[in-house]
Amino acid sequence: MAATTPWFMMVRLGTPSIPTASGGSSTPGGAQALAAPSVVDVFENHIFMSGDPNDEAVVAHSAPNDPFAWTTALAGGQLTVGVDVVQIKPFRDQLFVFGPNAIKRLHVDSTGDLCD
Question: What is the pTM of this model?
Answer without folding.
Answer: 0.73
